[in-house]
Design goal:
Distance between the termini: 67 Å
Protein name: Bifunctional ATP-dependent DNA helicase/DNA polymerase III subunit epsilon
Low-confidence stretches: 321-331
CATH class of the largest domain: Alpha Beta
Mean pLDDT: 85
InterPro entries: BRCT_dom (IPR001357), BRCT_dom_sf (IPR036420), Ribonucl_H (IPR013520), RNaseH-like_sf (IPR012337), RNaseH_sf (IPR036397), TerB-like (IPR029024)
Helix content: 40-55%
Radius of gyration: 26 Å
Organism: Paeniglutamicibacter gangotriensis Lz1y
Shape: elongated
CATH superfamily of the largest domain: Ribonuclease H-like superfamily/Ribonuclease H
GO molecular function, one term: 3'-5' exonuclease activity
Keywords: ATP-binding, Exonuclease, Helicase, Hydrolase, Nuclease, Nucleotide-binding
Largest sheet: 5 strands, mixed
Oligomer: single chain
Amino acid sequence: MGQGYFAVIDTETTGLFPGNHDRIAEIAVVTLDRSGTVVDRWETLVNPERDLGKQAIHGIRAKDILEAPRFADIAEELDWRLSGTTIVAHNLGFDARFLLAEFQRAGRALPDFYLPRGLCTMQMAREYLPGAGRSLQDCCDSFSIELRHAHSAGDDAEATAVLLSRYMELDPDLDDWDYLLNEAAATSWNDSPPTARLIPALRSSADSEETHFIDRIVVHLPEIPGAAAHQEYLALLDRALLDRYLSAHEQSMLVSTASDLGIDRSTVMDLHSRYFLSIADTAWADGVLSVEELSDLATISALLGLPTELLDAATLAHPTFPMQPQHVDASSGFFLQSGDMVVLTGDMTRPRSAIEADLESAGFKPHGAVTKKVKLLVAADPDSISGKARKARQYGIPVVGEEYLWKQVLRASDLQH
């Protein structure tokens, strides 16, 4: 990396305690020169190898970090990017503690002088922005600096870089600016970029189009004759659609199952259509399609990648579609009984103790660990990579989102009582 720069960093983490079990889930480095010009921006999501903590704060979804590098995978490149720089952050103490802990876990170490020599724009606000407030948003507002997506590492780091440049404009003759950059250049410890540099993993934006899992199924395969393979795929689909959400894990499992069973894309689409039509037929059994049933059919249709024409035909009037000879059982066969064990994972919208109390009142047994006797795992994020979620998938235990808990498990129990 070029020498004599400011390396403005920001991290998003799973929590507040790096010395305990919290980890970095996203990191960004924005490189700034003495003139205050941004010369580089690098950022990546990081697989923290645990659940993501309070996702409502940082907004990172578990599906986004499934293919993200671990910190150990980026440690060499990060070391190179920081070499020859003065580190800067808004609340540097927080980011520095996480950096130190993560480098230690990765079996590497930053030079002892590096982090203590850094600049904290939050602390500097006392001098340059007295009374403005200490948050990054407060400081940015004082200069009309745009903070586009708060708690996004890349945007926070870039806003902090602009904030530092404004400080330098307010005090252009301060000797410390040049002194720190000269010291950084003189103490550079890693001038060679890593031979293998990973492609950063970025957040998926709300506007980006995600590839539907059906598009990942091979078009032509030597299909296994007979209905057994189809029923096996449909059984997996039953479980996956239990909470009317297809997590990235479930999508990958459907793709790999179709491949293993020799079912090609056109056959999958046919199975999806027949599966959907049997659900529509069940919904119309009483001759009326309720608003809730209509919403359910629309959700399933979108998840299965079906054409809108099929949804329209199934919902505008009672379907009279000719079914194929092979019977498609659209019922999942999954149900909870009184006494079944339910495990919770992740930070949910209510305290865990309150949710467990509701489960107990409904006749279920909240359990703290996943064993083969557990019937259901409820996750704050269905794509959770927590140890509990990994173990549940290993045992074939359904992993559902919190909404399923309220709408199906506890609501169904209330109706029965």
